[in-house]
Amino acid sequence: MITDISKKISWLYNNPKILKGIYRGIERETLRIKKNGDFSKTKHPYFLGSSLTHKWITTDFSENLLEFITPATNNIDKLLSFLTDIHCFAASKIRHERMWPFSIPYSYKKKTNIQIAQYGSSNLGKMKSVYRTGLKYRYGDLINTISGIHYNFSFPILFWEYWKKQEEIDKNIDYISQGYLHVIRNYYRFGWIIPYLFGSSPAIPSFFLKNIKKKYPFKKNKENIFYLPWATSLRLSEIGYTNTNIIDLNIMFNDFNEYIESLQKSLITPSEKFINIGLKDKENNFKQLNCNILQSENELYTQIRPKRNTQNDESPILALKNRGIEYIEIRSLDINPFSSIGINKDQILVLDLFLIWCALIDSPKINKTDFMFINKNWEKIIFKGRKPNQNMYIYQENQKKTFIEISEIILTDLKKIALILDINSDDMQYQTVCDKIKSLFINPELTYSAKFLNLLIEKGIKKIGLNLSQKYYNEFININKFNRNKKIFEKETKYSHAKQKQIEQSDTLNFEEYIKNR
Predict the structure, then answer these.
(1) How far apart are CA 441 and CA 386, in angstroms?
(2) How many CB atoms lie within 10 A of CB 517?
(3) Which CA distances in Å does 16 have to 37, 435, 468, 496?
(4) What's 340-394 look like in SS3?
(5) What is the CATH number of domain 6-516?
(6) DSSP H helices in 121-255
(7) How would you class 245 by CB atoms within 10 Å of its CB: exposed for 0-12, middle for 13-18, buried for 19 or more?
(8) Where are the alpha helices (DSSP H) in 140-223?
(9) DSSP 249
(10) pTM to 2 decimals?
(11) Which tens digits make up the pLDDT trace of 175-206?
């Protein structure tokens, strides 16, 4: 049930300063490809720096899966400018390759050899590679090359101080961590609105489907790309997104200590399925870090996660346990194929509004039954969210409303929040974006997924992909002439290689001892 937040809107209107200082960061994944669209077979380019230690340019699952990371900032334009500069710098160093503009690797071939990302000879570097080897054995290598955008968001401390008083939170508990869990629960309840608006993966190649083709009413184009006519983000579905079953792990985001305990339990509890894989191969090489339900915290694949920056060699869960939640990571964004950097300002503005809204409405605790219905709501939007003239019901605690009814309530509230944010920034950008997304609810054909699917059917995925990757490459090369951060990136590249060598020389334990001590 969506609660009336009129009083809280008035409270915000009278205290607009508490929303000044929102910090944001972006992580963008993209596959390096050859000019013909095939996967790149080269190692992570040396002139992009060390993937182990570079602040802003690394790799994710494979050697050709780049990941660009921005520093956190409270200025959206600077955030997007820095992300653009990273792309421009990278493009200038991989002149014979391009960056794939979609989340799904449609250009994969059976003979493609996906190389697990390598991070050097240090124990830390080996651990990162073995973790990815474990992902390959557990879920398959191809599925781990699916790319996305991660949006990191933190409220100002002043906001939480005012929020605590409004929500009458016990002063003796970590009210900031409880506040972020409040937001996370509501993101699960209503976050399906994000793939509806911005999902960009309504189609998927046949080699992802295996035995699942008959489960859904797929159509296909001449390239053997399967699609669902009204789908939004198959990347987030059981087909494309390797999602740990958090219901079975009993992770409900209701209480901070319970969340930590349940996550810790999954890190030390053996899984029969993963025991069958084995810890090592015949040559005594590690096949995975361990045989537990999760090898590490990073294997908890969810639409949104609580996060904390680590210090020194600290583990993510220890950072959370010791100092609480610092920000949230939204992981349900597909690569935006209509943006050269995979995301645009409108998306950021909408996410800001929506996350603030999630903090304002009531957020009852979620049990396993609730979560089952929540997952079904996401599936409805993922598989048939754009179906015209439908009367699709979205279930909320012991009641149901149609998708349109709930969307209208959310949009009405977002407009009110937009007015307050625009007072802070002295412009109309948040209100303007509300008007834009309103048209997407009226006409689903204006959504990214609909536009993408129309192009796929009309022109074919390979032609679109190659044309966009070349177009964006040309833009990056031209912009790079004026790249203000070029010298900073060059300096960080050299420093990252030196830092990797320093880490490798400082190891005192053998790898097996290092793993046991983690």
Answers:
(1) 9
(2) 8
(3) 48, 22, 41, 41
(4) CCCCCHHHHHHHHHHHHHHHHCCCCCCCHHHHHHHHHHHHHHHHHCCCCCCCCEE
(5) 3.30.590.20
(6) 123-139, 157-167, 175-190, 193-198
(7) exposed
(8) 157-167, 175-190, 193-198
(9) T
(10) 0.96
(11) 999 999 999 999 999 999 999 999 999 999 98
